[in-house]
Amino acid sequence: MADGSSFYITTPIFYVNDVPHIGHAYTEVAADVLARWHRQGGDETWMLTGTDEHGQKILRTATANGVTPKEWADKLVETSWKPLLETIDIANDDFIRTTDERHEANVQKFLQHLYDEGHIYTGEYEGFYCVGCEEYKQPSDLVAGTGEYEGQQVCAIHSKPVELLHEKNYFFRMSAFADRLLALYEERPDFVQPESARNEVVSFVKSGLSDLSISRSTFDWGIKVPWDESHVVYVWFDALLNYITAIGYGEDTDEFAKRWPAQHLVGKDILRFHAVIWPAMLLAAGLEVPRGVFGHGWLLVGGEKMSKSKLTGIAPEQITDTFGSDAFRYYFLRAISFGQDGSFSWEDLSARYQAELANGFGNLASRVVAMITRYREGVVPASVAPGEAEAAIAEVERRATDASWAAIGRIAPHEAIAAVWELVDALNGYVTEQEPWVLAKDPANAERLDTVLATAYHGVGTLAVLLSPVVPKAAAKLWSALGAPGKVQDVRVDRAHEWSLGAQVSALEPLFPRIETTA
RNA sequence: GGGGCGGUAGCUCAGCCGGUCAGAGCAGUGGACUCAUAAUCCAUCGGUCACGGGUUCAAGUCCCGUCCGCCCUACCA
């Protein structure tokens, strides 16, 4: 059961120049489902998402399009990113942009604080610069040249020699925190989840940390370094701070104290920024480290990691236009073990939609509502004399409620949904076995029929409550058809089986209509 | 190069410290039923657990090697 404690969950902020694809949507949905579940379980919940808008690439594309970088970002936020949240029905509590005043001002405060405390020093960055890419390359990005560049290191992309450049930079003494980070991973084994992610982070830190260059002076689209305005803050350093500037760091200490620390959800590609750099930054500032960092897996399409560069990126609307946002949310959280890579295919999506949502849950809701309408004129009957079968259903309801709540606590939404589905299956089996349509033929069975219908009705209501975080639209429709009081999202999900009955059911359109198979 | 993970029914995946571990869901097949979105329920077909060795009374389950896929990390021409 919930204890009303604070639950603050974040997603990475979107890099505005990206094009939204189901990978972005997946992280959002996962965070949203966890947030809705906690919120509905009585926790003081806050879900944050937003956009990352600084950096050279954005400056460059804005310039190429003849607008200022801020105008460029404004446009993308309004036309791409906020609409994405609508598309997949995200109920975030806040949306931060790294160009917000609340962010920029407090990033400077944070940085000044680290500077004053001696965590930052002036150094010189030396690296291989590729003119073609207009950026520094890591040694691993270089390959041996051929032909006229035989014997030289060349950029893997442009196949041209790189230049060794020097740039004055400010550095964060991240190396000083290696031991404290290792101690953190040791003391809190679940700080980085899943375990495979934790192992990689630990071995990375054990191999030695170097200091981090945190400023750039070759372009100016970013937050000014407060003591040297010829430099802007390195985009990652800037971006990570959104998690605290959004909840009042530097200006609203009460709010900050109430929300922090956060549970971060990230794709495993950016795990290191969140599990190493970010905690080191917080330690340096004397702030509490996050509650946890969960690195989820990739979505695989045709066995390959989905990515925009491979043109396998799928726009979320492609799915929601046909199946709806509820199905999108359900599918990705149900079909993929959260934390592992997961295969996406239209066939699997279609099959699960049909078998689980339409035939399993949706049809169950339809048949129960239809029978109460048909046999009792819509009046919700009372459970007159519950027997063993009814006790068994009640037990499944309780178990599904407890097991799903516990799974959410473990950040295992796939297990939570699986636990709820045991109730779907049990109810379909119960209705078939009890044969209310047979009972209805003889008035002598009136009480038994009441009991069966009441039991099925109660079970379906419990499902509406339990599934509300996952399929909010369908749950609300069902709740309304059940004639249940209030809004389903206000009913405690950690005590779902204790919901208050309605008196009269009303017509229910199919929650998940069959989709004619064409593709 | 080093390290890690994975390769189990047509598909997606469970199988913790070795001994009902050969499983689930979907798909397929047969049957029951009609309240329901041609839905539901029951039954059933289906796998040399990547490959080759080894340890053991007993190995998907431990050890060694090979092949394949992926990830992290380091890179000498």
TrEMBL record:
Q: Where in the cell is it found?
A: Cytoplasm
* Origin: domain of life: Bacteria
Binding-site positions, Zn(2+): 130, 133, 155, 158
Motif mapping: 'KMSKS' region? 305-309
The reaction(s) this protein catalyses? tRNA(Met) + L-methionine + ATP = L-methionyl-tRNA(Met) + AMP + diphosphate
A GO CC annotation recorded here is: cytoplasm
InterPro entries from the UniProt entry: Anticodon_Met, Met-tRNA_synth, Met-tRNA_synth_2, Methionyl/Leucyl_tRNA_Synth, MetRS_core, Rossmann-like_a/b/a_fold, tRNAsynth_Ia_anticodon-bd
- The regions listed as transmembrane in this protein's record are none
Please give the biological process terms from Gene Ontology that the record holds: methionyl-tRNA aminoacylation
Cofactor dependence is on: Zn(2+)
**Top-level EC class as recorded in UniProt:** ligase
Question: Any note on cofactor binding?
Answer: Binds 1 zinc ion per subunit.
Q: Name one Pfam family in it.
A: tRNA-synt_1g
Q: Which residues form the Methionyl/Leucyl tRNA synthetase domain?
A: 8-368
Query: What GO terms are given for molecular function?
Result: ATP binding; metal ion binding; methionine-tRNA ligase activity
Which residue ranges does the UniProt annotation give for the motif 'HIGH' region?
14-24
EC number from the UniProt entry? 6.1.1.10
Grouped into one coarse class, the protein's main location is cytoplasm
Q: Which UniProt keywords apply?
A: Aminoacyl-tRNA synthetase, ATP-binding, Cytoplasm, Ligase, Metal-binding, Nucleotide-binding, Protein biosynthesis, Zinc
Gene3D superfamilies per the UniProt record, alphabetical: 2.170.220.10, HUPs, Isoleucyl-tRNA Synthetase, Domain 1
Where's the Methionyl-tRNA synthetase anticodon-binding domain? 380-516
| Family indicated by similarity | Belongs to the class-I aminoacyl-tRNA synthetase family. MetG type 2A subfamily.
Q: How does it assemble?
A: Monomer.
Protein role: Is required not only for elongation of protein synthesis but also for the initiation of all mRNA translation through initiator tRNA(fMet) aminoacylation.
Protein's name according to its UniProt entry: Methionine--tRNA ligase
